[in-house]
Design a protein that fits this description.
Layout lengths: L2 E6 L11 H12 L1 E10 L7 H4 L12 H19 L5 E9 L1 H12 L3 E6 L9 H11 L3 E6 L1
Parallel strand pairs: 1-2, 1-4, 2-3, 4-5
Length: 150
C-alpha cells in the first residue's frame, strides 16, 4: 500500500499550491506514495455569493448551489493535477464543503494520509484566514503536517 500525501489548496490563491504541490510530489517520490489534491468550498452565509464572500464583499446572488461549486472545484483540480502531478504519483481528488480545517483533517483520516503538505503565508490583511486554517490542521491532524512558506 502506497503512502498517501494530502495537499489541500485554495483554488483562488495560486500561492496555496505553487510551492506546496511540487513539494507534495517530491514527498510522494521519496515515500513511494501518491498525492491527493484537495480543496474546500467554505460555508457561505445565506445571501452572499461565494465569489464575493471570498473577497470579503457582502453582496451578490442569494442563489447558489454548493454542489455546483464543489463540482467546479473538482474540475479545476483535475486540470491542475494533470499539469503538476505525474500520473504515477496521482492518488485522487477531494472536494468538500464546510469548515476548511475540519474537512482537511477529516479527509486525511478517511484516506489514511501519512502526511499533509500545505502552504502558509505570513498573515496580511487580505489573506489572514489562511494562517489560522494551517495552524488548526497542524494541531488537530493525526498525521504529520509539513507547512510550506512562500
Amino acid at each position: 500500500m502506497s503512502k498517501k500525501i494530502l495537499v489541500p489548496i485554495d483554488l483562488e490563491h495560486q500561492s496555496s499550491w505553487l510551492k506546496a504541490l511540487p513539494n507534495g510530489v517530491n514527498q510522494a517520490r521519496i515515500l513511494d506514495g501518491e498525492v491527493w489534491l484537495m480543496t474546500v468550498v467554505p460555508h457561505i452565509p445565506s445571501g452572499i455569493d461565494w465569489r464575493y464572500a471570498i473577497r470579503g464583499e457582502e453582496h451578490g446572488s442569494i442563489d447558489y448551489d454548493v454542489k455546483d461549486f464543489v463540482k467546479q472545484a473538482e474540475e479545476r483540480m483535475r486540470e491542475l493535477a494533470k499539469e503538476h502531478i505525474p500520473e504515477d504519483y496521482f492518488g485522487g481528488i477531494i472536494a468538500a464543503h464546510g469548515t476548511i480545517y475540519e474537512k482537511i483533517v477529516e479527509a486525511a483520516e478517511e484516506i489514511g494520509a501519512e502526511l499533509i503538505v500545505m502552504a502558509a503565508h505570513r498573515p496580511s490583511l487580505k489573506d489572514y484566514l489562511l494562517g489560522p486554517n494551517t495552524a488548526r490542521v497542524a494541531r488537530h491532524a493525526a498525521c504529520s503536517v509539513q507547512i510550506v512558506r512562500d
